[in-house]
């Protein structure tokens, strides 16, 4: 097998494409021949030693992937050789083969393509957990999605529309805003040239959004929170802009608003049954055509560094997927 190996987490340039022994699955594990793997923002952080999870060195990055089960370890009864699966194991995806815990694998129906499957779990699970569970989104409410043209943003637009919400999508270019409209956004804000607070005041008749979905952080956080509706819920997803904002704590008080942390990975670990039910619902929605990953590009696995460069340039709309 071949894999991108991180031996020193100082950045993307230190990754090396290496030939490694093909692994044998242990108890409770399966070996997967990887067909496709998607690039997520944590994949960038983890090779820079900036992510909250720091795997022992050396490791193969790539949190999310899809492929075919080649071998099963002792005690694995829920999966079989030849079965197609999607997996989010945190590492191991940027390779031709990997070993993963069988419990982390989602069996795929035949009509679920590998490229879509590799771009599915992290973004849709994060957005569903954020909007439906943590945000308690109700039909008829208004959702502001920041960074709306990215992987989690495009998933959030689709899930909010399934829930019956009105969606305001905020992105950094007219091209990205146009993508959001094609996905069903009711209104868009190009925050590179529009004042976010003024636009939200106009689009909500001065009431503000009920739920704010924020995977961006940085300078957008405070003006977005200042625009929130009474009893609004501000969902903290991540900090793609880099800086972690420091919000004045009088803002939640004045608006009777909630600042809500969203950590889907920890939810999945602590509440595995609820997470499994959520994933099954998402898979059903995909089968019904209600949600579908937006694929920015597919690139050969050997071009991982080019994919990282495109992500770092903030040019990606939806998800980048590497294929073997």
From TrEMBL:
<dbReference type="GO" id="GO:0016491">
    <property type="term" value="F:oxidoreductase activity"/>
</dbReference>
<dbReference type="InterPro" id="IPR051397">
    <property type="entry name" value="Zn-ADH-like_protein"/>
</dbReference>
<dbReference type="InterPro" id="IPR013149">
    <property type="entry name" value="ADH-like_C"/>
</dbReference>
<dbReference type="Pfam" id="PF00107">
    <property type="entry name" value="ADH_zinc_N"/>
</dbReference>
<dbReference type="Pfam" id="PF08240">
    <property type="entry name" value="ADH_N"/>
</dbReference>
<dbReference type="GO" id="GO:0008270">
    <property type="term" value="F:zinc ion binding"/>
</dbReference>
<dbReference type="InterPro" id="IPR002364">
    <property type="entry name" value="Quin_OxRdtase/zeta-crystal_CS"/>
</dbReference>
<dbReference type="InterPro" id="IPR036291">
    <property type="entry name" value="NAD(P)-bd_dom_sf"/>
</dbReference>
<feature type="domain" description="Enoyl reductase (ER)">
    <location>
        <begin position="11"/>
        <end position="322"/>
    </location>
</feature>
<protein>
    <submittedName>
        <fullName>NADPH2:quinone reductase</fullName>
    </submittedName>
</protein>
<dbReference type="InterPro" id="IPR020843">
    <property type="entry name" value="ER"/>
</dbReference>
<dbReference type="InterPro" id="IPR013154">
    <property type="entry name" value="ADH-like_N"/>
</dbReference>
<dbReference type="InterPro" id="IPR011032">
    <property type="entry name" value="GroES-like_sf"/>
</dbReference>
